[in-house]
């Protein structure tokens, strides 16, 4: 009953939408401002990013862009803990304690898979990649990635699969609506990425599909732990191992993709429509998930029923860690 954990707050349902709405307004303002600036300067997003990187350096540019998520994550935690008076545990999981083993297992599993996939791509098409490994530049990147990327990925998870999923679920009483809407919004958040400009809007299928699998993990496992591990592993591995001049993340990675980007095709969708379901089946086997249909498409219990099943709710809310 992960969504129902939202009842453990002291404010109304509206509180779940304050930070997400502010963030989306900020993203919208940033997108419009960027488009206007590009039109005035007659530049592409790739050219603008290249200029900024030339001035700041890749590692500094990356760190500056990630720092905003440190502030964002702390903002969510402060709002939840001190204003809504909901425990961070109940925002994270339906379990009594956050299951760190789940986070680290998923991180290691997906990091190994992602690294293996990148190395396989290099092996199969070596002409598309250049080795640019430089230990003096890679070591700072490694430190920045391990320290700051978890803030970025955790912010997005607590925002979309945490506050928004719980808020929409409680507001609509529908797990499916909460799951699908948050996944679409997660995808749209990436609309301003330079990858969309290069690969076409069809690449949004990848972002929305990733949102769907992360939301499914959260609902089926009744907690954010697996999604937190997956997202952190995905971004950290990509930053350390592969970059390209036209991607949102510009790093001094081990390899650089020098191939000419092409439109997102049906072949590119195989990992989404085949790989992600297989991943869910594997996790379901490991963690013995049951009642898939109910967890993904069932009704969210109302507050009265949830309180009846959890009589300690009203007295222990403010005592949880």
UniProtKB/TrEMBL annotation:
Q: Name one GO biological process term.
A: CAAX-box protein maturation
Which UniProt keywords are listed?
Hydrolase, Membrane, Protease, Transmembrane, Transmembrane helix
InterPro entries named among the record's database cross-references: CAAX_protease (IPR052710), Rce1/LyrA-like_dom (IPR003675)
Domain CAAX prenyl protease 2/Lysostaphin resistance protein A-like spans what residues?
Answer: 141-236
What is the name of the protein in this document? CAAX protease family protein
Q: Which GO terms describe its molecular function?
A: endopeptidase activity
Q: What are the transmembrane regions?
A: 12-32, 60-82, 103-125, 137-155, 176-193, 199-220, 232-249, 269-287
């Amino acid at each position: 009953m992960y969504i129902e954990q939202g009842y453990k707050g002291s404010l109304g349902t509206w509180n779940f939408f304050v930070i997400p709405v502010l963030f989306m307004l900020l993203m919208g303002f940033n997108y419009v401002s960027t488009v206007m600036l590009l039109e005035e300067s007659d530049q592409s997003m790739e050219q603008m990013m290249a200029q900024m990187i030339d001035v700041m350096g890749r590692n500094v540019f990356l760190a500056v862009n990630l720092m905003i998520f440190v502030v964002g994550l702390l903002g969510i935690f402060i709002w939840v803990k001190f204003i809504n008076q909901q425990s961070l545990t109940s925002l994270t999981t339906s379990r009594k304690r956050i299951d760190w083993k789940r986070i680290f297992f998923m991180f290691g599993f997906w990091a190994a898979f992602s690294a293996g996939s990148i190395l396989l791509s290099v092996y199969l098409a070596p002409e598309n990649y250049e080795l640019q490994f430089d230990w003096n530049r890679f070591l700072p990147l490694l430190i920045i990635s391990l320290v700051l990327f978890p803030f970025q990925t955790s912010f997005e998870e607590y925002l979309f699969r945490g506050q928004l999923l719980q808020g929409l679920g409680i507001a609509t009483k529908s797990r499916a609506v909460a799951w699908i809407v948050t996944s679409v919004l997660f995808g749209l958040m990436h609309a301003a990425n330079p990858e969309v400009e290069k690969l076409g809007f069809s690449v949004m299928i990848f972002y929305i599909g990733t949102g769907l699998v992360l939301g499914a993990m959260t609902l089926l496992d009744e907690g954010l732990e697996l999604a937190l591990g997956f997202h952190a592993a995905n971004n950290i591995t990509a930053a350390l191992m592969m970059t390209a001049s036209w991607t949102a993340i510009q790093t001094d990675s081990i390899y650089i993709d020098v191939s000419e980007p092409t439109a997102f095709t049906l072949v590119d969708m195989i990992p989404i429509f085949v790989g992600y379901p297989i991943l869910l089946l594997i996790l379901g086997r490991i963690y013995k998930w049951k009642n898939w249909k109910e967890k993904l498409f069932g009704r969210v219990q109302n507050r009265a029923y949830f309180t009846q099943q959890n009589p300690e709710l009203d007295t222990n809310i403010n005592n949880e860690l």
